[in-house]
Amino acid sequence: FRPAVVQSIVGHFAGHETSFHIDIDTNGSITWWGPDIGKTPIATRGNGSYFIK
């Protein structure tokens, strides 16, 4: 899936007051953004590329 513009999926961690969002970039890469780490207000938690046949 390669959207024409960046798409975001927003979620909430059950049992916590924190949320996250996942960006799907136009090149097909995915970046997961999570809650703060130390003094960084929002930090990337991981990324990856998935190929769909």
TrEMBL record:
Cellular localisation: Virion
InterPro entries in the record: Adenovirus_pIV-like_att, Caudo_bapla_RBP
Primary location recorded for the protein, binned into one broad class: virion
Coiled-coil segments on the chain, per record: none
Domain Receptor-binding protein of phage tail base-plate Siphoviridae head: 1-53
Name used for this protein in its record: Receptor-binding protein of phage tail base-plate Siphoviridae head domain-containing protein
Biological processes annotated in GO: cell adhesion; virion attachment to host cell
Leader peptide range in chain numbering: none
Xref: CDD domains: RBP-H
Keywords: Host-virus interaction
